[in-house]
Specification:
The chain has 327 residues and is mainly alpha-helical. The protein contains 13 helices and no strands. The longest helix has 29 residues.
Amino acid sequence: MYNQSMAWILGSLRKDILWLYVPGLAALLLSFFFIPPSPSLAYVAYTFVALQFFDSGHVYTTLWRTYLNPEERRRRKAYWIAPVIFFVLFFSWSYFQIPGLAAFIIYATIFHNVRQFFGIQKWYQRLNKRFTVWTDRFLYFNCFMPFLIAHFRTGPLWNQDYSEQDIWRFPNENLYRGLLVVYLLGLTAWLVWEILELKKHREWNRFLSTAFPTALYGSCFLLGKTASEVVFPLVVAHGVSYFALMTLALSRTQKRFVNVQIALLVVLLTALIFGSLEGVFEENYLDLSNAVLSPLIAVYLTPLFCHYYFDAFLWKGTHPESSRIYG
C-alpha cells in the first residue's frame, strides 16, 4: 500500500486539483455557459488567455529544459537536426500546397494532448508503485473515441472558425450512433473496472487522472459546437498542467531555479512573451493556403513540432533527469 500523503505529483491533493484539473473544468464552464463566441471584450480576453498564453506560450517553456540547459543541450544532436527537418518539411508542404497540412497539425496536437494526460497517469502509477496496463488502455479509448466519433456528427462542428480542410468530416448519423453505442459500452466497462480496482487499491489519484480527461474529451467532442467549446478547454487544461509540471521539473533539476516560485515566474513570463509574439504573428502572417508565406509558416510550425518531439523523450522514465523529477 502506498503512502497517500506522498501520492500527489505536486505534493498534495489540493495542489494537484488546483493546477491539473480546475483550469480545464473552469474553461469548460466558461466555454459552454458564460462566454459565448461573440465579439465581446470577455471573449477576446478569453481567447488570448486560452490560445496565446496557455496554448502557444507553453510551447516555448520547453526552451528551459533544452536549448537553455547546457547539460541537456549536449546530450542530443536532435536539438540541432530536428528544427532543420521540421522547417524543410513544413516549407515544402506549404509551398507545394499539399493537402492535409491543417488536419495534420490538429491530429498531432490531439495526440500530444492525450499523451500528456497519459504521462500524468503514469506518474501517479509510479508514485503508487503499481502499474496496470488496463488503465492505460481505458485512458486512450476514453479520449480518442470521442474525437473519432466527432468526425461523423451531422450537426455544426467548429464551422464558425474552421474550414472543411482543417479537419476531415464524414457526417453520417447511423455511423455516429453506432460508434456512440461502442463508446458508451467502453465507458461502462471502464467504470466497472475502476470500481473493482478502487475497492482493492484505493488509488484515487490514478482514477482522477483518467476520469478528468474522460469527462473533458467526452464533453468537448460530443457536445461542443464551436471552437471555444471544443478547443479552449483542451488547451487550457493542457497548458496550465504543463506550466505546473515544467515548474516542478526545473526546480528539481536546475540549481539556478533556487525555489519553485522563481521557476514558476520564469515559466509564466516565457509563456506570456512568446505567446503574445506568436499571437501577433498568427494575426498578420498565418495563412496555410498562401504558398508565398511558406517560409513564415515553416518558422511558425517548427517550434511547435520541436516541442512535440522533444517532449516525447524529455518526460520519459529513461531520461537522465527522471529520477530527480519523479522522485
